[in-house]
Amino acid sequence: MPTARRLAHEFLDRRGLTTIFGNPGSNELPFLAELPENFRYVLGLHEGAVVGMADGYAQATGRPVLVNLHAAAGSGNAMGALTNAVHSRTPLVLTAGQQVRSAIGLEAMLANTDATQLMRPLVGWAGEPSCAADVPRSLAQAVFEAELHRRPSYLSVPYDDWAAELAENPILDRQVRRGLAPTEAQLAELVATIAAAKNPALVLGGDVDTGDLFDRAVALAEHLDLPTWVAPSPHRLPFPNRHPLFRGVLPAGIAPVSAALTGHDVVLVLGAPVFRYHQHVPGRFLPAGTRLIQVTDDFGAAARAPMGEALVAEPAPVIEALLRKVPARTAQRGYVENPEPKTGERALHPEQVFAALRDTQDGATRYVVESTSTNSAWWRQMDLRHPGSYFFPAAGGLGFGLPAAVGVAMGSPDRPVVGVIGDGSANYGITALWSAAHYRVPVTFVILRNGVYGALRWFGELLGTPDVPGTEIPGLDFTAIAAGYGVEATTVTDEDHLRTQLKTTTDGPRLIQVDTEPTSPE
Ligand code: TZD
């Protein structure tokens, strides 16, 4: 008779979840024993880095990924990074080892007390099998919950369950698929609304890129000559940022969004919450006379929106219906040039760094960005034309960028990957450098060293609290830190040196530390 472990491995194998990101402890060892040869275990040295790498890998591959955490302590360490995975809707399947069943109630060391409550409200579903015989089904549920809800799930398994001998299990053959198409009537109404609109606009969210709809979104915007924004606080780029129809990233405040959309009678929002505001700037949610229609397959995002209409459906069939049924208008195509980069006085301006990346890196490069005060410089200087070119921490939780760059590079060996990381942000996920070195992951980390928490200084001004402590971080040397983790590194201070460095390639990880001038994100 097969063991619970054998059935679990077989189930994961059949579903293609054969790369496991983890940091193990004693409770997890019985699950990891006898791992089939085609499985790969990617070790991260801290659970924040484990989840960041898994998130990047899952986003790059478009597939659910198994994460193995150690009991309550490892799960707790993972929670900060998990906030990002929740908002990027990454289907991470988190598993954690539990004490043996007889030791949970008496709270022996490493008992995960109330394990199913620990990760709420971040995970969409959390479970612990009620008996060993229910382990394979529970694991299947954890995978399907993550895939169907596009939200991390969590399964805690007592470690004495894995050796239990069980009957063959029909769970191995299950197929669970997702398909949320609108009805014909809903499509017809939407088509009529857009066809009748005098001055419609398009707002795209990260789900458009996640759902492989980047090119179709361009086709739609060009077909209908739609001015196109990216929804506030983007974690992916769903549209080429130098396209003549691109109007930019909508500001993340209530009144500024309303101001930006003024003059449009219909605003079609595809694959985004409405909206992910950040700085609190109260006002009208929408300009007078503007009708907003949100199409999302995220039930929660539709339910909690403060205004507008929502159609809960995948954006893909909506895009195709509009392309087929609304008559074409003439639109501009192609790409517009970037402005001249601003220059720094005492150190490089971030715009000089980004212009150098744009000029030296392959056009298909994937960028994982966690540099918070350089936002406007980034969009002014980059020219991103390909799907899956941009990844940012979706909940603003630092510690995503460096590990996610490793995960994205592991998940897409066919495209170069560059992590653009602030000198503050880099510290939260720094141990991923070791994984990058250990697995020889081809990834370039560009660390922008401005010596401060730049975004916080800007926010301090915004909130009328400019004199706060804790925003200076002098004295960090990432070349020394990188050397300690086994990653080769250099410091550059001038533009020519930066460009020369960026043109060289290696088959493993490397880190370029660039001294930059503090700037404001707007
Ligand atoms: N801790 C975590 C986990 N996430 C956060 N977002 C913060 C703290 C607060 N925070 C920001 O929101 S931005 C920022 C902090 C500390 C500064 C990041 O500094 P940096 O980039 O050097 O990476 P800039 O360009 O200097 O802002």
Shape: globular
CATH architecture term of the largest domain: 3-Layer(aba) Sandwich
Q: What is the spatial order of strands in the main beta sheet?
A: 2-1-3-4-6-5
Determine the fraction of residues in helical runs and give it as a percent range. 25-40%
Quickly count the helices.
Answer: 20
User: Could you tell me the mean pLDDT?
Assistant: 97
How big is the Rg?
24 Å
- Uncertain segments are none
> Helix/strand/pairing class, anyone?
alpha/beta
CATH class type of the largest domain: Alpha Beta
Termini Cα gap: 63 Å
Record field, number of beta strands: 18
Task: Please report which band the strand proportion falls in: under 5%, 5-15%, 15-25%, 25-35%, 35-45% or over 45%.
Answer: 15-25%
User: What is CATH's topology name of the largest domain?
Assistant: Rossmann fold
The named CATH superfamily of the largest domain: Thiamin diphosphate (ThDP)-binding fold, Pyr/PP domains
Tell me the major beta sheet: 6 strands, parallel
Bound ions, cofactors and other small molecules, one mention each: ligand TZD
Whole-number total of structural domains: 3
